[in-house]
Specification:
276 residues, four-stranded antiparallel β-sheet, binds zinc ion, EC 4.2.99.18, class I DNA-(apurinic or apyrimidinic site) endonuclease activity, zinc ion binding, multifunctional enzyme
Length: 276
């Protein structure tokens, strides 16, 4: 699944490749990706010029002239490809934008869970899915106090709480496992039962993890590749995710894989014990 660092890498790649391009045609091969009528989607975007690609958590925001924004949620498997020929797109490419320089922007999504929606630019932050998002790592809104206050109000386990995007946005399965290992927190620990020491360790762990991952261009767990076809390098530094059976680099105990919040979860049974 693309996580915040991957989406940020895609955003930067798209800005280099297609900023200032005008959309001259749109082909929608699978209408389920589009929120609302496909004809409205096309009418709103054809002829528009792309000003820049922004991001909120794991949503890409394509800002166009005429104060229109296309919100794109990649969900499980979505990715963008910029190509010079329609023949370069396979059967999993469901939406194709023709650009005025002869290139094509294709949206590829094997599982078809992604969504695209056009809204007035000033309504983006009020859109239901985006309004519900908590503060993002590495921003002024994400403070130790905000994190502590958010977790205090939640009784479900810390893994589910960090995944649900309300207390902090942008962390997916891989990075939640990694930050819980760094802060020595058991994934099944109730969110409102963290010790002071764990809370103090969790905040910088989240910021560090996201900063490091963005710098490395995201992970290549599964099939993530950025808009230019480059693979991320972050998988080299994963401490617990996908490390089942390997020794913990902190204590030597074998990393275990269990199910928490319905997701495969990796942790060290010796470094990450439940609090009393
Ligand atoms: Zn350990």
């Amino acid at each position: 699944m693309p996580e915040l660092p991957e989406v940020e890498t895609v955003r930067r790649g798209l800005n280099k490749l297609i900023t200032n391009r005008k959309i001259t045609a749109i082909e929608v091969r699978y209408p389920g990706i589009i929120v609302g009528p496909v004809t409205d989607f096309k009418n709103q975007l054809i002829g528009r010029q792309l000003l820049d690609v922004g991001r909120r958590a794991k949503y890409l925001l394509f800002h166009f002239d005429h104060d229109l924004t296309m919100i794109s949620h990649l969900r499980m498997e979505g990715k963008y490809q910029v190509r010079s020929s329609l023949g370069d797109f396979d059967k999993h490419v469901h939406v194709i934008f023709t650009l005025d320089d002869g290139q094509y922007l294709g949206y590829r999504d094997v599982r078809k869970f992604g969504k695209m929606q056009v809204v007035p630019t000033d309504a983006v932050l009020k859109t239901k899915s985006i309004a519900a998002l908590g503060p993002e790592p590495l921003t002024p809104e994400f403070t130790p106090a905000a994190l502590a206050a958010g977790l205090k109000r939640r009784k479900k386990n810390i893994k589910a709480t960090l995944l649900d995007q309300h207390v902090v946005s942008g962390l997916g399965n891989i990075y939640v496992d990694e930050v819980l290992w760094m802060a020595q927190i058991n994934p099944n620990e109730p969110a409102n039962n963290l010790s002071e020491k764990q809370l103090a360790a969790l905040y910088p762990a989240i910021n560090e993890e996201i900063a490091t991952a963005i710098k490395a261009g995201g992970t290549t767990i599964r099939s993530y590749v950025d808009a230019m076809g480059h693979k991320g390098k972050f998988q080299l530094s994963l401490k617990v995710y996908d490390q089942e059976g390997k020794p913990c680099v902190r204590c030597g105990q074998q990393i275990q894989k269990i199910k928490v919040a319905g997701r495969g979860t990796h942790f060290c049974p010796q470094c990450q014990v439940l609090n009393q």
